[in-house]
Fold HAD family hydrolase.
Amino acid sequence: MGRSPSFAARLACPIDPRRPVDRGHSRAPRPPDARRSRAALCPYLPRRGEHRRDPEVEDPRDRQGAANVGGHPMTGLLVSVDVGGTLGHVDRPSLAATLATASPLDTSEARRIIRQKLHAQPSISPQIVVDVCAALQVPVSTFPRAIAPAPLRLVPNALTALRAMSRHATLVTLSNVTCLEADPSALRDLLHPWVLDHFPSYRIGYAKPDPAAFQHVARTCHVSTAHMVHIGDDWTCDVVGARTAGVTAIWISHGRPVPEPDRLTDHGVLVAADLVAASRQLTELAVRRRS
């Protein structure tokens, strides 16, 4: 009778819990069609040579993290972070910037129309293009014919700041972006493992500063807005919107003056020069909440 394998040998070759333990009896090999492939066992793992998907088509991985996201186990905090201008930049103007520049309307009004009529759309039909251009008072030909996602270039020390914040809060992104420009797979890979879920406007159906955008994130992540902090560089979208929803806001100033100094008397509004400074402010906030 053969000797049973040693403990060290079993560690070196662990037993697959899906397979019955071989007690030394001969066993016929499983037929090829009965073997579960790596893709079947891990359906969301990217395959070699896999192409990025159409951003208009929902990817199951977009929702994969939501069921497990909640407030941080130590502090109960949830932090949503804006993407463009806060986490990074792209090398060309966004669709919103292109249309707002072409419009004869005041820039703030043009951007409001774009947020309302474009950013929250899960797909862009020809009729939506017509409606947006009419509202902006520009010809339909102004709307670019070919739009593709542009790579996001992270600001200096972005991952260091995210790692520091992840010690004190659960991190997600909350951004205004059209479905034509979004690249959720690339964003997920870029910010992994510090950011656990992503909430682009075209997916959730709300665009900042609509308080419903912040409330949707809090509700989906099973956190009260009182335990949520939002970080962003747009005063209207990221500060006014967050405070309207009852969310603490950290504004990334990039050296700019505060647009509404009176709001600084609100203890729910903080100002940071950059993302690293914002991470320090969040750490201080988390320490105060635990004390």
